Amino acid sequence: MPGIRPGMTTERLGMTATIIDGKTIAAQLRGRIAGEVARLTSAHNVTPSIAVVLVGADPASEVYVRTKSKAVAEAGMRAVDRKLPATTSEAELLALVAELNKDPSVHGILVQLPLPPQIDSHRIISAIDPAKDVDGFHPLNVGRLASGLPALVPCTPLGCVMLAKTVRPSLAGLEAVVIGRSNIVGKPVAQLLLAENATVTLTHSKTRDLPGVCRRADILVAAIGRPEMVRGDWIKPGAVVIDVGINRVAGEGGKARIVGDVAFTEALAVAGAITPVPGGVGPMTIACLLLNTVRAACALNHLPPPAV
Ligand code: NDP
Predict the structure, then answer these.
(1) Same-domain status, 113 and 162
(2) Could you tell me the CATH number of the domain that includes residue 86?
(3) Where do runs of H (alpha helix) occur along the chain?
(4) pTM of the shown model
(5) 182 lines ligand 1 (CB under 6 A)
(6) Closest approach atom of ligand 1 to CA 186
(7) Are strands 219-222 and 199-203 parallel, antiparallel or unpaired?
(8) Which atom from ligand 1 is nearest to the alpha carbon of 204?
(9) Residues 122 and 202 occupy one common structural domain
(10) Per DSSP, which regions of 144-262 are E strands?
(11) Does residue 163 share a domain with residue 125?
(12) Which residues form the domain of 261?
């Protein structure tokens, strides 16, 4: 949108929302992580390392994996990229996971999803050592999060809560509404908001009067996968809106552009703060993956958690 930059308060323009600049916040977090990585390497001879496993040649997954590997290297961490052909069997992938579980120089294991149809992703995720499960998808980590115990938690939800806390440092007592109940985003973000003492409502495609439920929210997290579904009049004035959606739509001249699950321009006029798409939640996901890897490296080496 012309004239609006991330981080800028929009009151001047007759709007109210502050844009939560995920790109800058993620860069700052990556900087702090790089500092911890340098300290761990020099003081303890531990260089956090992550194994990223990619099966097949899905173009979107290849881009994600490249971006992740670049961020890992920039933070001074070690990336072990393992590329397997699309014909890989479940037994072969399980064997690789077992090898990475045993390797003491590997602290985090990420198997890029989706996997080809011959492989059961639940079996693969359950085979990863929970202590190296930097995606936070292993049933043990899911259960620990639900039980309020320390856990490796999924990266995108962690990033959402961190972004919300940049504008509302305490979420205690606030009404939080999450749209979407996936295992990757909706459910874990609801658990994290609950752990922050918010009063959480988790909604989905069968929820009655979704706009009315959303209008109660002091914190609204949209993780739906439907372009600009959340309209301005769904938003409580002054609410913090975290838009997780990444939707590719046809833009001017037929050129594809990315939009979120929230009608951004409408939301700007009502919300107190909002994450843009792109440049909001997306960059935080990768920063949180690095954070989880450093946390895993510390725990596996019986060191205190990183100070970031
Ligand atoms: P899923 O498709 O797994 O889940 C979508 C959820 O939205 C479901 O719970 C579904 O409900 C709900 N939903 C769908 N339609 C409606 C509707 N009309 N009204 C209310 N609820 C609805 O998606 P993900 O959670 O994996 O991803 C959500 C979005 O976030 C996507 O755009 C994805 O690309 C993006 N994403 C972004 C990431 C990032 O790093 N920024 C990371 C991961 C995802 P039901 O369960 O009833 O079907």
Answers:
(1) no
(2) 3.40.50.10860
(3) 22-44, 59-74, 90-102, 121-127, 139-146, 155-167, 186-195, 210-214, 264-268, 281-300
(4) 0.94
(5) yes
(6) 25
(7) unpaired
(8) 21
(9) no
(10) 175-179, 199-203, 219-222, 240-243, 247-250, 256-259
(11) no
(12) 154-282
Q: Is 275 in the pocket of ligand 1 (CB under 6 A)?
A: no
In a domain, 169, yes or no: yes
| Number of Cβ within a 10 Å radius of residue 14 | 8
**Which residue do the tokens 């996997």 mark?**
115
Q: Is 55 found in the same domain as 158?
A: no
The CA radius of gyration of the chain, in Å to the nearest whole number, is 20
Spatial separation of the C-alpha atoms in residues 69 and 112, rounded to whole Å: 12
Q: Which amino acid, residue 186?
A: G
Per-residue confidence (pLDDT) for residue 14, from 0 to 100: 59
**Token reading at 28:** 């700052």
Is the domain of 163 the same as that of 219?
yes
The pLDDT tens digits for 85-113 are 999 999 999 999 999 999 999 999 999 99
> Which residue numbers are catalytic?
68, 112, 135
Please give the tally of structural domains in the chain. Answer: 2
Does 169 share its domain with 90? no
Give the residue ranges of DSSP H helices in 128-247: 139-146, 155-167, 186-195, 210-214
- The CB of 156 under 6 Å from ligand 1? The reply is yes
Which pLDDT score, from 0 to 100, does residue 5 have? 52
The CATH number for 263's domain is: 3.40.50.720
Integer Cα distance of 203 and 195 in angstroms: 18
- CA atoms of 29 and 22, how far apart (whole Å): 10
Closest CA to 56 of 93, 28, 27, 26: 93
